[in-house]
């Protein structure tokens, strides 16, 4: 065990028990360390093992951690990776793991078809405390064995979150009788196995089913969606089903949703808060710009989130017209370029808009402004200019006055206030015409959001969707949300 992984409190306790003579004796230190460490939760509660350059000594230490406690309620979390033929794990670790799997609370297993056969006995054991299960099969094949047992989870109601990645289940595996919190089924190499996974967990609150190109994806009419409050959609055909449209939270993950599909899922009643941005995106499959959009009802009950949108499509009049219900929009957060510019060029009118939040790198020049156009927002009460990035942003009072007065049309009797977040201003801000006041504030942490209503709704979006936080999607006025 490396020194940097030993908890500081354990080291302190060990050396507090030793005098100078014993400190100079490695044997005494080792004995005291083992005795004390085995009693600490940091020793046995979170376990990790991989077959990458695994030695017998490392396997023995893992077994020592695993067997340090025997009480049934001494639950542990385990991440185990075995993607090769590894006799050390098969012969020295698996027997002890089978004997202690009943104490597992969280399991993450990464296997291959070649190692799956050796782990089959493990899956047949009962794990009554298991609440989080992740099983990923690397380079799965259609000929690999199917599991007819999965820790006997159907006999208890402890299981809450499940991720199955290319794991083949038997038709005979007993389905769960309770409702789990979240099921993510990712079937890329063996898409035909997804329906069996959905059959094993027929009821869940958050459902995320993914196959390559939508192959073998069952229709919503064949699923039990009564308990689903959050659904990830990869196939636009799903948006044609009324049972899908009425789910409180929908996450749309394909690049070019049709305008008709977008309109069909936007909440039809009450005030709306919306966010449309273009972000820098990079993952293992693609890189470059992509778009994100969210539409939330003012009470936070209905959420529509669009991810991995085509960047050009995100800022197109077609998409913006479909996703923004102009007459009911009360809060709008957009990136200055290119989304807000497109809205100005379209000369949109938002009669109910109270708050506008713009993520900026800089303001447009005086020569460029005439080509922008404007939006009409007669009830606008606040404009927030938020730094959209990590680099400093500095604007002049003159450029801000010019930008606000030329791109926004509002009533002259109630000019909006301007809030600058993470934006430095040069010149005399007090003499700016066309605004009621200018407020300077620092950039908030990504997790911060006020007022209370805004915090509740934004937190709901982020907790349900597990999204990267948008630092400038913030509210400065209690009446805005």
From TrEMBL:
Signal peptide: none annotated. InterPro entries: F-box-like_dom_sf, F-box_dom. Residues 1-47 form the F-box domain. Pfam families: F-box-like (PF12937). This is F-box domain-containing protein. The lineage of its organism: Eukaryota, Fungi, Dikarya, Basidiomycota, Agaricomycotina.
